[in-house]
Amino acid sequence: MVIRLVLLLVLMTGVARAESLRLVVPDGQPVVGEMIPLTVRGEYTRQITLEKLSFPNSEDYDWMQLSRDQWRDEQIEGRSVRVFERRIALFPRHAGALAIGPVAHHLTVVGANNLREPLVVTAPPVTLPVAPFPDAGAPLSARSLTIEDELSAKPGELRDGETLVRRVTLKAEGTLPHLLPARPLLREPWLISFVAPERREMQPTPDGPVTTVSWEWHLRPKTGEPGVLPAVSIPWFDTAARQMRTAEMPAIPFGYSSFGGNRSGTERLPAAQVGLAWFATGMGLMAGLAFALIGLSPSRRADMLRAIRRLSPIDPTRRALVRAARTGALLDIRRAAETYLRRRRSLGLPVSGRETAQLDEQLYGRNAATSSVTAKVELEAMFRHG
Fold this sequence. Notes:
Blueprint: H1 2-16, E1 20-24, E2 36-44, E3 48-53, E4 61-65, E5 70-76, E6 79-92, E7 96-100, E8 103-110, E9 116-123, E10 126-130, E11 141-142, E12 144-151, E13 164-173, E14 191-195, E15 199-203, E16 210-221, E17 227-229, E18 232-238, E19 243-249, E20 252-254, H2 259-262, H3 271-283, H4 285-294, H5 298-311, H6 316-327, H7 330-346, H8 357-364, H9 375-385
Helix pairs in contact: 6-7, 6-9
């Protein structure tokens, strides 16, 4: 009787610890393009001689293996179990329900009389909700993103005929090379520009890929007249802080240092002429603005237009943000807010970087399900911080 009970206990334990495979995914709601760390975990009690696991490809995601497969022994429920783990980084391409799996592990195990026999253990599929990327542009999600901007000389004090070499390196942790943005266009009417081939590189690490893209421009002014290369903004989603951020290639002054010495006339007008010029400008601003712009060089025309936009009370992006707030749709508000803030940054208007913090927490935070932010509160926060 005792022997039968022992045998029954052994059989029940064996059934309870049958070979198993499952997909382990983190909690939360990732956005499009965000790295999802995924683990394929198998727990086996039989002796394994050969194994092969292939992770399935899909039109809905990109993926890469983060490290070598791990095999180790663990004590689970009082028994020694052979544990298999494979770590995967997965990058969703679309918003919505993301299906992963099933995943099959093809094993060869030792059976009765030491004979080899095949065994297939399958992990059932899992489904994750993926949120839309919170900006209208191409999705770029990363743990961190930095820009390194190198100039071969002082761009505003070039020697006559000198060419400026500008090298920009964008480095992002937790994303793939093809998800980094395309090379920005540096084009101005007064500028001659040549580009070198870009370089995209990826370094796998246990925490995810570290990707860099390098751009190089050879720039030379056509006439030497001073100008300004405008800043280039790159919006990206910070997966650690769960909010949108903006990296920036800064604006740089551009021109030959000899241009100032070759200008005719004096450096400064007499006070009477300055007063008369201000009076004429104020009186004829509305009627003669178009004619004044025609007489300027392209670079100065661009600078004046930028200054006018800064001073103008008309802001179409602000009106679009107010319209989006009236709908109450938080995702529409987020997209309109990014357009509004991008305009302010391009014009040099103050931006704190915290305008959309509450909204990002509502949409993408870890406690998004329990958070409640109204459109009115978000709008007031953005206008207060901006």
